[in-house]
Amino acid sequence: MSQAHERWSPPARDPDDDSPRLECGVFGIFDVPEASGITALGLHALQHRGQEACGIASFDGQRYHTERHMGYVGDAFGGGDLNKRLPGHVAIGHTRYSTAGGSFIRNVQPMFADLEAGGIALAHNGNLTNFLTLREQLVAQGAIFQSTSDSEAILHLIARSRRPRFLERFTEALQQIEGGYALVAMTNKKLIGVRDPLGIRPLVLGDLNGKAVLASETCALDMIGAKFVRDVEHGEMVVIDEKGIRSFRPFPAQQARPCIFEYVYFARPDSVVNGRSVYEVRKRMGRRLAQETPADVDVVVPVPDSGVPAALGFAQEAGLPFEMGIIRNHYVGRTFIQPTQGERELGVRMKLAPNRSVLAGKKVLLVDDSIVRGTNSIRVVKMVRDAGAAEVHLRSASPPIKWPDYYGIDMPDREKLLAANHSTEEIAKILNVDSMGYLSVDGLYWAMNAERDPANPQFTDHYFTGEYPTRLLDREIALGRNELVERQLSFLVDA
């Protein structure tokens, strides 16, 4: 596909963006015939992690083959000639969201580079919190960037390493990056998976008839008929080649702190993340939510689809009817990927429709997975009221989101987060609901079968607490620079 050479500049964030975004999915498989076809199936299962773009890279023993496309996996890689277009016994793939204005083919992964030691393809889920710093250093040393993605910095670091062996070069590059990430990489002889030192972003190891598979979530293993072997551990580098599977520890040992928002929103409910069923955790969120924020209502209605398990848990705990009062059109993508406000409003109407037979004349309790800015909630509440609901109450199955993210989830700046600037009572008035309630932070930990201990944190939960698990180098530097650099930082959260 051809691409224009756009000038590198921070795009304007959509002023009415309401939902968390910029999660990606990665997949890799080693030593199987028609590896690209299996990779496409794995990416189908990971489509929820990125619906804007996708790509696959394969290696046939002699040559690398890559395709990168805007749009859905099925549209890009659904043809029967895929294994002819992308032949090989090793392949990696990627699904992607981008920031507003960053929808360029040059940013789509996997990224490929032909290095002195041979070719390498790389796919990345997450965000490097020192990317601006690295980029400036690399450009000053003569590096030429072809994208605005932080993933490309990793390739430059590998290329510039003077270590004699490839794995040593790769390790040296890893030791210079910071943030939350899961990587899959493919070389002439190896498939490599890496998880950041805290395990913020997920990555699992699977087995397909004796052949190794790497994926962001277990649902991708289920899709291709592979068995789950284990999670790639925090700070671990898994190297897969003809010798088998080897494990390396390129970082100093630290306490694991996986992202708790995977359980709230991003992971598919049928996945198991870090040993916990996402579906069961979300149901427990709903149970605890019913205990903490009861309501005198007739029916519990989820905001589909991610609010369904929590709403079910709420209804079961409260002894209330659970009904699908809002019907989702599954042929429309997630609302927040729409690039403009007008298109997104149309997308909401296309995606969600009221079930009037459930809502009319009823006191309705809506359960959503989370509330960021509230604009989508305003539309949903209006839709339910217009359908004849006597009362509308809203519950969030996550705690109030008060802090932005810098590890791969593109949430708005703090001044634009609803709960960071308003009390629960004020939010109820803004959203036009009869009552509003959130799950507590302790309640979220209860749903995880864990206890929150600020002195010994088990999860990355800064969205709710403001307690960031790492330093934010680019952020710290940007705060001391001019407004342009600050705007660049808000843009360069790129998976």
**CATH architecture heading of the largest domain:** 4-Layer Sandwich
Strand order of the largest sheet: 3-2-4-1-10-9-11
| CATH topology value of the largest domain | Glutamine Phosphoribosylpyrophosphate, subunit 1, domain 1
Q: What is the tally of beta strands? A: 21
Question: What can you tell me about this protein's structure?
Answer:
The chain is of the alpha+beta class. It has two domains: 25-257, Aminohydrolase, N-terminal nucleophile (Ntn) domain (Glutamine Phosphoribosylpyrophosphate, subunit 1, domain 1, 4-Layer Sandwich); 274-447, 3-Layer(aba) Sandwich (Rossmann fold), CATH 3.40.50. It is built from 19 helices and 21 strands. The protein has helices at residues 35-45, 73-77, 82-85, 131-140, 151-160, 166-174, 218-224, 261-266, 278-292, 308-318, 341-351, 356-359, 375-386, 418-421, 424-431, 441-447, 462-465, 473-479, 483-491; strands spanning 25-30, 53-59, 64-70, 90-96, 111-115, 118-128, 179-187, 191-195, 204-208, 211-215, 227-231, 237-241, 244-248, 272-273, 276-277, 299-302, 326-328, 352-354, 363-368, 391-396, 435-438. The protein is globular, with a radius of gyration of 22 Å.
Draw up the topology in text.
Layout (H helix, E strand, L loop, with lengths): L24 E6 L4 H11 L7 E7 L4 E7 L2 H5 L4 H4 L4 E7 L14 E5 L2 E11 L2 H10 L10 H10 L5 H9 L4 E9 L3 E5 L8 E5 L2 E5 L2 H7 L2 E5 L5 E5 L2 E5 L12 H6 L5 E2 L2 E2 H15 L6 E4 L5 H11 L7 E3 L12 H11 E3 L1 H4 L3 E6 L6 H12 L4 E6 L21 H4 L2 H8 L3 E4 L2 H7 L14 H4 L7 H7 L3 H9 L4
Parallel strand pairs: 16-19, 19-20, 20-21
Antiparallel strand pairs: 1-4, 1-10, 2-3, 2-4, 5-6, 6-7, 7-8, 8-12, 9-10, 9-11, 12-13, 14-15, 17-18
Helix pairs in contact: 1-7, 5-6, 9-10, 9-16, 18-19
